TrEMBL record:
The keyword Metal-binding does not apply. Residues 1-20 form the signal peptide. Keywords: Cell wall biogenesis/degradation, Glycoprotein, Glycosidase, Hydrolase, Secreted, Signal. One of its GO terms (cellular component) is extracellular region. Its main location: secreted. Pfam families: Glyco_hydro_28. The keyword Hydrolase applies. One of its GO terms (biological process) is cell wall organization. It is found in: Secreted. This is Galacturan 1,4-alpha-galacturonidase B.
Length: 429
């Protein structure tokens, strides 16, 4: 049920990353307001009421979820939004009907991924005030899929698709079904003050529980994130350009990922102008790591592929703090291959170049600062590492090894040994 009224409402007219208040819609009309009334039962699907509200007030209006639990029992595709504010004060709780989701989740448009909710449009503000919550009932999924990677039909929690000018802030994501956010074909968007906890109830990690993934997207800013998960904290994938990740804390997962990329045979993809700064890592595997598929296609996405073309360049990471990092801080692996194959780790045509890692301090379990396993066909070029102050956890020794394979042009460090060469989807061997 939707309650419709027409009060004067404060609205944040969108100019990423700054916001200005406005009492009226972009067209000059007073903003309409739709309040979504929950059914208050897991047997009642609140999606029809949500879709009604977004249809009625999704253009020049405001949609309010009150401080209640809303039961999400079916998929949502809401890509028509324009000049809208979504006010989440309660909890959106996804059902555990695995059979339904496996058969009805919506295509994301990349890697044969699917999703529970596609949201898009122009000038969107989605505000959770620090307590509005998405609960994906993920424990059910983590137990169901076990160690299977990219289980077909397992949905991403939320896909921001085709959005132009958007702000998502103050949202909490708890136990997302798979990736928390997939951001695709989106530009000029700001994701601020987001909390993600995709661990089991007992704190154990779960596979494929990324905090966010950018795909075919431009000018995306992530600030003030806190992510606890078992996979990529945030990942930039194909054709991600001008991405900023700043002032955030990542715990227990793999760290910030570039890739995986190069999965589509013959496709030309890039990751450019990625700016990472002021990040704290708590027991993650890496700080920043790259993963590309091999030059050979073996199978098809999501669990196979390879042979992709392109490059990753102009990537900087500065002011990084680590607490008991579990693996090598900076890692490149160009040997991702699934489908049970052991690929050729030196034949990828995807090139990695122009990297700057500066000012990293704290503790790590690895004596290696870097492990760069690059392609012989398209060697890594122009890598800078400066101001490293990493002590090995539990003693007074400092990390100081730099392992290299097919690296040309280093600044601030010398390669001290040969890199381990082997298949990997998580960096290193």
């Amino acid at each position: 049920m939707v309650q419709l009224s027409f009060p004067v409402i404060l609205f944040f007219s969108l100019f990423v990353p700054s916001l200005s208040l406005s009492d009226v819609a972009r067209n000059g009309d007073t903003r309409s307001q739709c309040i979504v009334t929950p059914g208050n039962s897991s047997d009642i699907d609140d999606v029809p009421a949500i879709l009604d509200a977004l249809t009625t007030c999704g253009t020049g209006g405001r949609v309010i979820f009150t401080n209640n639990t809303y039961h999400i029992n079916s998929v949502m595709n809401t890509t028509w939004l324009d000049d809208v504010e979504i006010d989440l004060q309660g909890t959106l709780l996804w059902s555990t009907n695995i059979s339904y989701w496996l058969n009805h989740s919506l295509p994301v448009g990349y890697q044969n991924q699917s999703t529970a909710w596609i949201l898009g449009g122009t000038d969107i503000v989605f505000d959770g005030h620090g307590y509005g919550t998405f609960n994906g009932s993920g424990t059910t999924w983590y137990k169901y899929v076990g160690s299977t990677s990219n289980y077909p039909g397992r949905p991403n929690q939320l896909t921001v698709s085709g959005a132009k000018g958007a702000v998502f802030r103050g949202l909490r994501f708890v136990q997302s079904q798979m990736w928390t956010m997939s951001i695709i074909h989106t530009s000029n968007a700001w994701f601020d003050s987001i909390y993600v906890n995709n661990l089991y109830d007992n704190g154990d990690s779960a596979q494929n529980t990324d905090g966010a993934n950018t795909i075919y997207s431009h000018n995306i800013t992530f600030t003030n994130w806190e992510v606890l998960n078992g996979d990529d904290s945030i990942s930039t994938k194909a054709n991600s350009t001008d991405i900023t990740i700043a002032d955030s804390t990542f715990s227990s997962g793999l760290g910030i990922a570039i890739g995986s990329i190069g999965q589509y045979n013959g496709a030309y993809e890039t990751v450019e102008h990625l700016h990472i700064s002021n990040i704290t890592y708590e027991k993650t595997t890496h700080a920043v790591y790259f993963k590309t598929w091999t030059g050979d296609q073996v199978g098809y996405p999501p669990n196979g592929g390879g042979g992709g073309l392109g490059f990753a360049s102009n990537i900087t990471a500065t002011n990084l703090k680590t607490n008991n990092l579990k693996g090598t801080p900076f890692t490149i692996s160009q040997c991702t291959t699934f489908s049970g194959a052991s690929g050729n780790c030196t034949n990828s045509k995807f090139q990695i170049r122009d990297l700057v890692f500066r000012d990293i301090s704290g503790t790590t379990e690895s004596a290696d600062v870097a492990s760069f396993q690059c392609s012989a066909v398209a060697p890594c070029e122009d890598i800078t590492i400066e101001k490293v102050d990493l002590r090995i956890t539990g003693n007074t020794t400092y990390a100081g090894e730099y392992l290299c394979g097919n690296v040309e042009g280093t600044v601030g460090f010398n390669c001290t040994g040969a890199v381990c060469v082997g298949s990997s989807a998580t960096g290193g061997c």
